[in-house]
């Protein structure tokens, strides 16, 4: 007569099944300290953004940012992405895109139309997803209005490689447009 499977065997099978499924649901990034070189997770064009960012910092077009790793770096990136989400929301601009911070390899998704949701540590986008590639210094420069979206695109610190309807650029321009407070700082 066959013995019923033991609870340990069932638990082991479940654990094995979960470990084979979970890695595809999330992706490690440089902040996790599990990835030695975030460019190993690279999306086409990320190295170009990193090189362009170094050039823009060297030319003093954008400000350098302190290097932060681990939890501190993740918190800073989260704050920038939340700020971007808030600015898109205030400008009544939709989400519906993935964003990669190329320095760390952190993928996030901005979802929704009337109410935007930010999903950090999201899986890589599908070929049909709209994609934003940006460096951390580039995102900081955009959020502080040091440069415009058009300047960031020209400098190469921002790229929109997957934007089939060409709406992502206008949405970002609207959300990150200089405000009256920004123009009073320079005038």
Topology:
Blueprint: H1 7-25, H2 46-58, H3 70-90, E1 97-101, E2 106-111, E3 117-120, E4 130-134, H4 136-143, H5 149-155, E5 158-162, H6 168-175, H7 180-186
Parallel strand pairs: 1-4
Antiparallel strand pairs: 1-2, 2-3, 4-5
Describe what you observe in this structure:
This protein has 187 residues and is α+β, with helices and mostly antiparallel strands. It has a single domain, classed as Nonspecific Lipid-transfer Protein, Chain A (2-Layer Sandwich), CATH 3.30.1050.10. Helix content is 44%, strand content 13%. It is built from 7 helices and 5 strands; from the N terminus they run H-H-H-E-E-E-E-H-H-E-H-H. It has helices at 7-25, 46-58, 70-90, 136-143, 149-155, 168-175, 180-186; strands at residues 97-101, 106-111, 117-120, 130-134, 158-162. A hairpin with a 4-residue loop joins strand 1 (97-101) and strand 2. The protein is globular, with a radius of gyration of 20 Å. 30% of the residues are buried.
């Amino acid at each position: 007569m066959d013995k019923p499977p033991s609870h340990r065997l069932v638990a082991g099978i479940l654990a094995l099944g979960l470990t084979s499924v979970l890695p595809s649901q999330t992706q490690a990034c440089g902040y996790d300290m599990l990835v030695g070189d975030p460019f190993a997770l690279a999306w086409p064009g990320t190295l170009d953004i990193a090189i362009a960012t170094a050039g823009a910092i060297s030319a003093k077009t954008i400000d350098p940012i302190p290097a932060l790793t681990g939890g501190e770096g993740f918190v800073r990136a989260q704050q920038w992405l939340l700020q971007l989400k808030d600015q898109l929301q205030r400008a009544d601009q939709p989400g519906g895109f993935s964003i990669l911070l190329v320095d760390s390899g952190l993928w996030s998704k901005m979802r929704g139309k009337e109410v935007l949701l930010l999903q950090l540590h999201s899986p890589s986008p599908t070929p049909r997803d709209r994609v934003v590639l940006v460096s951390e210094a580039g995102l900081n420069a955009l959020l502080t209005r040091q440069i415009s979206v058009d300047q960031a695109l020209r400098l190469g610190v921002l790229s929109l490689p997957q934007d089939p309807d060409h709406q992502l650029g206008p949405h970002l321009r609207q959300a990150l447009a200089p405000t009256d407070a920004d123009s009073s700082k320079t005038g």
